[in-house]
């Protein structure tokens, strides 16, 4: 249960006098405590808690990411966000999950294509935030390949190497791959991204409406989101068909996805260890040193 000191803080937010019995523990990933707060006759909420010192501004940035997406797609409403006694909290609208309708995946693909039609002025172009528990630098860059190399792949490769998780050979291959990025990626404007779009970060809301949660928002290449959807099993084929109908994929899109997925694989290597090294090596063997894949 959350700290008793938080109950007087959360009670006016939720609109009733909270008791420990109103909290039901939910799955919250590797860093958060997550609770459903419910009481008969009142709306339900989600309360997320974690350390304000270990992950500073994590929930403040999550709230900003949800707000950035909300103009274009469904996200939970942010009820409140703040800090108290070393804890940070985020209170969100409770989303009642529904069974996907026959059109759910088509709607989801179309919604993501619409989100990816929102363009920014530079790559990055968002406050620094987190992907999972790993801070990410969203400083502006003029090109996607410069942003991906300088703000994503190389800093994370160095961090993994410093922790003994990557050898010199893999680090050199990543640097070599960074030099090849202009030959891999099709031209794209800075696109508004969810940033962490794996299968655990969407819900099917009432009436089969796709709902996005837990974003790592920035302006980047569409293949960042699309690659992540395919990294751990993939979404339904109708999702990709609908996306392609609204926003056609380039001929070498699978190559783009695989290269983009080096970033989440490096994050998993940093957080969870060497079980992800094989997949990283496989991608590097395929792409480091390639010439002119775009057709």
Number of strands: 11
Name the CATH homologous superfamily of the largest domain.
Aminoglycoside phosphotransferase (APH), C-terminal lobe
Number of domains: 2
Helix content: 40-55%
Describe this structure in words.
It is a single chain. The protein is an alpha+beta fold. It folds into 2 domains: 90 residues, 2-Layer Sandwich (Phosphorylase Kinase, domain 1); 184 residues, Alpha-Beta Complex (Aminoglycoside 3'-phosphotransferase, Chain: A, domain 2), CATH 3.90.1200. Helix content is 40%, strand content 16%. It contains 10 helices and 11 strands. The strands form 4 sheets. Strands 1-2-3-5-4 form a 5-stranded antiparallel beta sheet, with helices on both faces. A hairpin with a 6-residue loop joins β1 and β2. The longest helix has 19 residues. The relative contact order is 0.14. The C terminus is likely disordered.
């Amino acid at each position: 249960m959350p700290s008793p000191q938080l109950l007087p803080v959360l009670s006016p937010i939720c609109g009733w006098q909270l008791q420990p019995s109103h909290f039901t523990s939910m799955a919250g990933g590797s860093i958060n405590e997550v609770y459903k707060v419910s009481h008969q006759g009142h709306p339900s909420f989600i309360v997320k808690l974690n350390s304000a010192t270990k992950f500073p501004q994590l929930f403040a940035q999550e709230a900003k990411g949800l707000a950035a997406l909300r103009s274009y797609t469904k996200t939970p409403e942010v009820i409140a966000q703040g800090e108290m006694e070393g804890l940070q909290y985020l209170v969100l609208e409770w989303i009642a999950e529904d069974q996907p309708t026959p059109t759910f995946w088509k709607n989801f693909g179309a919604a993501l294509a619409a989100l990816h039609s929102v363009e920014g002025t530079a790559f990055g172009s968002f406050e620094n935030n987190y992907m999972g528990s790993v801070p990410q630098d969203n400083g502006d860059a003029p090109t996607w390949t410069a942003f991906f190399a300088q703000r994503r792949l190389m800093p994370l490769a160095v961090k993994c190497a410093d922790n003994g998780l990557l050898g010199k050979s893999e680090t050199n291959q990543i640097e070599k791959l960074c030099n090849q990025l202009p030959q891999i990626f099709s031209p794209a404007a800075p696109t508004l991204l969810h940033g962490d779009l794996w299968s655990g970060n969407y819900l099917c809301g009432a009436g089969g409406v796709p709902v996005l949660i837990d974003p790592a928002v920035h302006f980047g290449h569409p293949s960042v989101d699309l690659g992540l959807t395919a990294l751990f099993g993939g979404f339904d084929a109708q999702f990709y068909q609908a996306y392609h109908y609204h926003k056609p994929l380039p001929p070498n899109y699978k190559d783009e996805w695989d290269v983009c997925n080096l970033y989440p694989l490096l994050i998993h290597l940093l957080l969870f260890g060497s079980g992800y090294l094989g997949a990283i090596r496989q991608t590097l063997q395929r792409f480091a040193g390639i010439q002119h894949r775009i057709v």
